[in-house]
């Protein structure tokens, strides 16, 4: 899997101060070796959806593997904590590592749901708490943005291509890198972020900007005007060929020659001379239909005559559905007029402030866009900019802990638990089932009573065709024990995971909730503990 | 100013691929040395507000100073660009630096407005474009989150304290660090993020979490029960003293002893033994008024008897306005009953998913909160998770460029410009004024015609009491020439900048727009260029 060495900020001090304060209080009270189990989970799917893609695991494991305070960290902590904090505590911290911790987790790229523990962290309570904030920070945004990408992806057919263009508007340089990485996991096909390409092997994409077009004012700005034919090797008068094709296009496309901006034409020509195999023109600097498209097609035709193939054009403003259809129509007319079939299917890229709703609206209208370039709203998760993963104590020294709340959704499911996904005959997931650790595993083709964790009356018998145990023990004995997939494998797995859900769980509008259930035994256990923990109120 | 060495990801490849493609196209066409000027600005204040805090400049300058491609970057680019890209281009890239660029900027922490250039980047067009994406990435989120912090800060009186608690929900680890850094600039008083404290010298804050309280089930879990009196040095039976105080509090606070959770009391006692000078109890793990507050006060009284002073308590759920008033009432009753005045003014911290609207609503109700801990909505900028800074070519080889658009707000103001802020007699800013570079500077106590840049009929004569030139030349001759403030100085400057605005520009609801104007000369110049650039349409 791709390296995460760039993230020098992922280190033990990337935590909330109270974790360090609590660590001292545990240590001071000789409670730090208490054996704890914490669940990391979220309570609500993001974006009003009914699924989430789990991401960030590899970075969590590398953080745990490399967990070591530096001397400069200790020196800094001495300036922050009171002077009476004992020296032995700092000596304890500097030698602390995570070798005696255990981390169980669902695989990265899994489809996950509210309340199921994504990770279970076991070991001395002081260490489990020192990990909390950083693990949450690593899982929260990774899962959020991967889910966002998967939602964009699910809006259209699989024949469309999606590129992430969010670097300049992302929440910090590393927010941008995380977004590029996890959008790829969520199903995007590439990114404009070159560093993400270098670090994670993600395909990088991009051509030119409006400034490139504006930098040419007239054809006189052209310093190179020739191009070598790819087949014959002959040097051709490329600029003049483009001008000639533009004139020939007038009756075919029905535009006025003077309205086609000659600076724009010069810019396209210069770009095609630099990248004859990679010509993708940005056509909306002046007027898309009166100037950009004719200029683009003139250059595409001249390239074709030189035995090159243009890639396509990009729309970055205006009514994208309408314009894409008009552009495709002009492609078709040109294709017919010059008898060049490939012109008809040139790529149309669209990239103007697209969010999920705009994408849905484009799909409802007809459009002829092949590739979407999506930036701001994808990487900053405009619709919901944070996922609310929490990290809750569920067991201490072998005794289960329950956290109560007035708000039922905030009550924790106590104890260490196993998790299974039950599949139906069609291979689609039926529901998730949590069990107590000491319960027998559910079996395929066996009827199982699945209960809602909180609502007594909600229950169902499920006879799964297959049963999948969800957890792997990833970290134990100071090593990453369970093999991690390559980043390409993780991406493929994520796509398969989404395919394993019924479509009504995935759709954007009013999706059907997926059921997360508990066994009858776990239900009884947790509700017994719950009622024992609530004192009977007194009214007078 | 604080070091930014942590951001190893801020490097030349942290850019969009099209900047590199364009660089090659400029180079190939021998256009790369064209002398350009680009303006970096935004078009709309974030959060439906009427001001923005400009931030990120120091990081921009350090990026420019250190700009160098590594050999591994070049090796990677060779795999991304077509094979016919000439070797000389890579040789050009590897030796490229930013020594012949000039960067003019407004000081970091300035209050800024739509359309005014925050930075002007001058130099060879190839270099100006290679800087674009990274400069935008560095300014966009820094300015957005600093502005968000300033808005939270402006909602309450200056006697309140604000802490940033957003690390776990931020958009990536570095998104969290940027947030901590720039929230401090925007007026916050501290952060929970320890690494931000270490790297930037920001005060770090925090105490303990619910898990700490849950980790104690009964008083039997206490391993230490004694505390040394701070004044006398005598070892006191601290746990027993707390139990005794709790009993004494029953008639004063009117709670039922059995409903005060003894695990919670044990947790508070252990925490106070570890941090006798830093006791701040989280009181909502069970029931705030029936358990948390009595337990907290019992420990606070015992600490007082041992000549320590508790700090206060934290509310993390429920009706914060109501609970804070109830808590203050109990503080007062206890203060009176035991004749300890300091109990009455113990700090009340509130921290449950607070956003700007909740803060405003708390202010409208009465509340007794002293300190706000704000996380998710602050650092991810829930109300608007991205600022839309753009980077536009305004001059090339001495000739002004204008970018037209159907949307007037997207039309650029051409040419290199100067910027002045005009102040009234009361010291408040009246308006900003852009001039052509060759115009005379506006003078104090002289009547100046200030025009709206787009609307012909909107204009006013302004006679400022003082005039401030906004730009400094920060980067020239390969050096950061203009001295940078320390981070504390930048924060102080930002607060003064906000004070320099009229209150109606700052208020949260329907603030008054601040006027950004141009001189009559600049107005005429730009509109002449505009009309020359628009071909007259033909209808038939």
TrEMBL record, chains A, B:
Domain Nicotinate phosphoribosyltransferase N-terminal as annotated: residue spans: 13-140
MF annotations from Gene Ontology: metal ion binding; nicotinate phosphoribosyltransferase activity; transferase activity
Obligatory cofactor(s): Mg(2+); Mn(2+)
Function statement: Catalyzes the first step in the biosynthesis of NAD from nicotinic acid, the ATP-dependent synthesis of beta-nicotinate D-ribonucleotide from nicotinate and 5-phospho-D-ribose 1-phosphate. Helps prevent cellular oxidative stress via its role in NAD biosynthesis.
Domain Nicotinate/nicotinamide phosphoribosyltransferase: 312-412
Top-level EC class as recorded in UniProt: ligase
Example of a GO biological process term: NAD+ biosynthetic process via the salvage pathway
Family, per entry: Belongs to the NAPRTase family.
Keywords tagged on the record: Ligase, Magnesium, Manganese, Metal-binding, Phosphoprotein, Pyridine nucleotide biosynthesis, Transferase
Listed pathway(s): Cofactor biosynthesis; NAD(+) biosynthesis; nicotinate D-ribonucleotide from nicotinate: step 1/1
Family matches, as InterPro entries: Aldolase_TIM, N/Namide_PRibTrfase, NAPRTase_C, NAPRTase_N, Nic_PRibTrfase-Fam, Nic_PRibTrfase_pncB, Nicotinate_pribotase-like_C
Descriptive protein name: Nicotinate phosphoribosyltransferase
Catalyzed chemical reaction(s): 5-phospho-alpha-D-ribose 1-diphosphate + nicotinate + ATP + H2O = nicotinate beta-D-ribonucleotide + ADP + phosphate + diphosphate
Residue ranges annotated for the Nicotinate phosphoribosyltransferase C-terminal domain, each copy included: 416-525
Protein modification: Transiently phosphorylated on a His residue during the reaction cycle. Phosphorylation strongly increases the affinity for substrates and increases the rate of nicotinate D-ribonucleotide production. Dephosphorylation regenerates the low-affinity form of the enzyme, leading to product release.
EC number: 6.3.4.21
CC annotations in GO: cytosol
